[in-house]
Every structure is written in structure tokens, then in C-alpha cells.
Input
Amino acid sequence: MKSIKKKLALAAKKILKLGLNIGSEGNLSYRDKDVIYITPSGVETNKLDENKISEVDIKGKVINGIKPSSEIFLHLSIYKDFKEINSIVHCHSTWSSILSCQRTKIPSFHYMVAEFGGKDIRCSEYATFGTKQLAKNVLEAIKDREGCLIANHGQITIGKSIDYTINLANALEKLSKQYFFCKLTKDTKILDFKEMNKVLKLFKNYKLKH
Output
């Protein structure tokens, strides 16, 4: 338990150093059996340690008296729907947030879009932060994917490990920046479904090996 909390605190600081969040922005969590460990509400990340990590059960009951992130509904909803997922990272990163404010999905302009599990990276419908409606909208956008944009908000990634999910968040930020600039020109070529099906198959085999 203590080692999980320590890893979460260190991971939050890593996300800060990567420039994916600032201050107390964003949140991340890890599921261990029936307990969700999640970053707290209103604590600056650079002051975060294992003693400030919140513990919540799958029904949302706080176990250790520490108030969880305002996006607790979002995390719980994902864990309930994605039984194989153990880690969630939510960021307010610059380029992903810009695209999310345009409420645009990221199409197959680059083959690495397939890293997220499909032929595009969707953007959710808008809802107020911290609400059950936001959680519902994100669940729809992230279906069959490992990440999506959150309208007028930022991005979220999911995975089996904290390190893997942080890497996805960093990758989503990179793709968001690349696509933003590609949108400025009419010369960008989109990969067709046939090619993306080939890439998705290759990614599936690649992930099985790793």
C-alpha cells in the first residue's frame, strides 16, 4: 500500500516535470484489487507525498479521510467499465487542451494514432468538470481506446501500469501538437482505413510482445 502511494506521488511529479500539468492540475490513480489510490483535491503536486494520497473503495467511499480529486467520479466510472485497467492519468496539457477546446478528434494523420487502439483519438462531449455527466461522456469517447481528449478540458489515458499510462499521456500530447500544425495546411494526408487496419494489427502484436 505504502509503495503504491509513493509511486503515485512520484508519478504526479514526473507528469509535472514533463510539462503535462502545472500546480495542482490534473490527477492520476491506481487500482489495487478493491481499493483506488488517487491524488487528492487541492494539493500542489510538488508538495505531494504518500501521506497525502487518498484511498477510496469502488463505490466511492473514502477510506482514509483524505478528500480525493474532484474527478473521482471519472476514475471510478472507468474502473467499473474497464475491468482490465489499473491506472488512469488525466492531464491539462497544452496541445491536447487546445484541440479539446476545438472539440475535434485526432484522425489517422499519423500511424502512431493506432497506439491508442483505433483509427482515431476521439474528443468527448462537453460537461462540467467533476460531474457524473463528464464521466459518462468520457466513457463514450474512450470506448475501445486507451485515451481521448476531454472537451474544453484536456486529456485522459488509461492502462495497466502507471508508467505505461504516463507514456501514453506524453504521446497524446505530442500527437496533439503535431496535428494542430497539420490542421493549418491543406497538404496533410490522412491514412485510409485499410492502412490503419494493418497498423492496428501490427500494434496488437507489438503490445503482446511487450
Summary: The chain has a mean pLDDT of 95. Residues 15 and 21 are 6 Å apart (CA to CA).
